[in-house]
User: Fold DUF1877 family protein from Butyricimonas faecalis.
Amino acid sequence: MSRLGVLYALKEDELNKLRSLPHDERYDYMLEEIEETLLETPRGCELDKAWEGIQYCLGGGEWDEENSVPTNIVFGGEFLVETEDEIITLKTHSEVKQIVVYLHQNNLQEIIRKNFPLINEQEYSLPKNDDTLNYLLGWSGDIQSFYENAQKEGCSVIFTVDL
Assistant:
């Protein structure tokens, strides 16, 4: 139960391969092929456990996984895998373009600072304190450049997490 979230930028052939697999094989394929290739490259963006808090902040302090900007920046998107233990969501290249526009018009760090106090403490898995806020701010720092690179390379983006 690590709850570590990662964004990956996939080229069309990589996404087609992932989609071609049966649902129950997709997460293992992501771990064995996509993670091995893209983690710690410009096409991978680690969010550690901060993804959950960032998602709450993108939803104005509420949990929202709708497939629209801004809630599809991290968790939201089309579900490619959805089990009790594993999640993969997809943001298409056209959605990536919309996300980049949004991130250029809205400062993600300011959104996090503004909405972090609005998160319901009983629903959130981490303590609500200054250390956690700084943790979210630190792990969210590469999201905009990651999406800019994904757009430039013509990629779609998946978010992955094992619950």
Remarks:
- The beta strands are 5-10, 44-48, 78-82, 86-91, 156-162.
- The chain has one domain: 5-162.
- Residues 23-38 form the longest helix (16 residues).
- The radius of gyration is 15 Å.
